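Input record, target 12 of the design panel.
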């Protein structure tokens, strides 16, 4: 059922990444044409005029890419938005499953999920922006500073920003879950996530790091697989005239794997979020009991009457 719900986002993400894949395939075909690995050597003696020795070599003409760089950048931003919407759709689907809500048909269930998601999509985008504003700012500064020589002070400053952004991201990791399952909006969702992490930050942060490493590892493997498969099937698609279709299908399979892994990580994070919520009342009761069992102060000694 979840596959049918995510199918529109899957196709949209594949179409957005198709131009970049075609540019990559074009670059590979241009730089490594068939037979380029066969190198032959022939010894010949020829007369070269003296004037031509010092003549500057003309740079080779670069063939234009099928799609302009600005088009690729815009489409990559759309892919980022689609990935965020995937999190929203998965959370809404899991919420309906836990509530026991189900439409008679699969298509009707998919429409119901998107209808429920449309009611909170603006709030979800705002919470996501607040959640990632510090990590994204740090990433932007790191990318900008990579083109300049770094002194020791600037290097440690960037390192400190990376550590702080990672800690902030861990604090507000459950902000999206707080919005969908508890109706916490804007900064209230961030503060609710912070309260869940209180007194157990490093224990929960380690689990979050495992989730992210699992997601990142399989995503990287899927990217490598896409590169290898597109390199192998690219010549076949070019010969048969179905290059775009071939790359689109490979791209679709890779994104499907990534979305499946993302759904598993989101479900595991939701389980962790609900476990933390259930532990909150018990901790409050324990703290009240401990406070009530504190030893009372010694009563003042009564004055001895004469």
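The sequence produced for target 12 reads:
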């Amino acid at each position: 059922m979840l596959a049918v719900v995510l199918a529109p986002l899957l196709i949209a993400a594949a179409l957005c990444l198709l131009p970049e894949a075609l540019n990559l395939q074009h670059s590979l075909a241009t730089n490594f044409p068939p037979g380029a690995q066969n190198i032959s050597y022939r010894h010949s003696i020829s007369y070269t005029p003296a004037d031509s020795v010092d003549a500057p070599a003309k740079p080779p003409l670069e063939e234009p890419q099928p799609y302009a760089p600005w088009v690729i950048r815009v489409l990559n931003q759309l892919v980022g938005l689609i990935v965020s919407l995937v999190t929203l759709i998965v959370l809404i689907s899991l919420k309906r499953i836990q509530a026991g809500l189900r439409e008679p048909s699969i298509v009707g269930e998919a429409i119901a999920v998107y209808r429920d998601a449309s009611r909170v999509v603006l709030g979800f985008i705002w919470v996501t922006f607040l959640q990632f504003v510090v990590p994204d700012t740090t990433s932007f500064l790191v990318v900008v500073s990579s083109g300049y020589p770094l002194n020791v002070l600037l290097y440690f400053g960037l390192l400190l920003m990376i550590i702080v952004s990672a800690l902030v991201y861990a604090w507000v990791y459950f902000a999206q879950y707080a919005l969908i399952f508890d109706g916490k909006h804007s900064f209230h969702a961030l503060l609710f996530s912070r309260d869940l992490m209180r007194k157990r930050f490093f224990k929960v942060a380690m689990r979050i790091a495992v989730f992210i490493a699992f997601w990142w590892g399989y995503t990287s493997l899927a990217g490598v697989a896409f590169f290898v498969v597109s390199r192998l099937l690219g010549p076949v698609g070019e010969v048969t005239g179905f290059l775009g279709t071939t790359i689109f299908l490979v791209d679709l399979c890779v994104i499907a794997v990534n979305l499946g892994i993302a759904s598993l990580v989101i479900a595991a994070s939701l389980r962790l979020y609900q476990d933390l919520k259930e532990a909150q009342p018990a901790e409050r009761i324990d703290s009240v009991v401990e406070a009530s069992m504190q030893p009372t102060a010694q009563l003042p000694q009564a004055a001895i009457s004469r």
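The mean pLDDT is 75.
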